[in-house]
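Dear Dr. V.,

Thank you for agreeing to look over these. As mentioned in my earlier message, I'm a first-year student in the group and I'm still getting used to reading structure tokens, so any feedback on how I've presented them would be very welcome. I ran two proteins. I've put each sequence directly above its structure. The first is here:
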Amino acid sequence: MAVNPVLAPIGRIKELKAQRAVGTFRGYDNAVFDVVVTIIVSHALWIFAVIVPLIFAAITYHEVFGWVLDGRT
């Protein structure tokens, strides 16, 4: 999951190269748009898959074990 923001655009670029070889390439404007949207979506999904659970885990850890760190008994 950590490499998805990097690998997703690479896969999309390979697909666009294959389209150009076959002759179904739609143009560079659409290709750039597709790659940029792929990067944005893959980063957004990465945030929801990695960062949000880490924040939830940190909040849960603080609620369960926070009294030890605060010095309360």
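The second protein is here, in the same arrangement:
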Amino acid sequence: MTMKTLFDSDGIRLEADEVQLALSGQPDFDNAAELAEAGKKWLGRRSDGVSIDLCGVESASTATLSVLLEWQRHLADYSGHITHLRLSPALSRLAAVSGLESFLPGLESSGVAVEAPASIDTA
């Protein structure tokens, strides 16, 4: 399937095909609202399952998790759901440390050992 670019700025890229959103780069709070809106526009009124791939996200950022949770809420508004969720190692550690893993349906194990990171970028 061919991926369509939904957002591309400053090395941050959001792409989608028929059933998957894929985010890469280093999102932060400066572009989180635009990313959330671009993803919600693609999600539309879906009432089926989608896959979300965040393996290309290079750093742990609460901004990225906020965008993900916004997409999840949007899907729930239309009875949609996340069937498969893949996180980068940095995001997996952040989700584990923050206790969000249980709120992320479809989360696939990354095999990453979870230890408290030395620092987490909250920007």
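From my reading of the second output: The CA atoms of residues 60 and 120 lie 6 Å apart. The longest helix spans residues 62-77. Does that match how you would interpret it?

Kind regards,
E.
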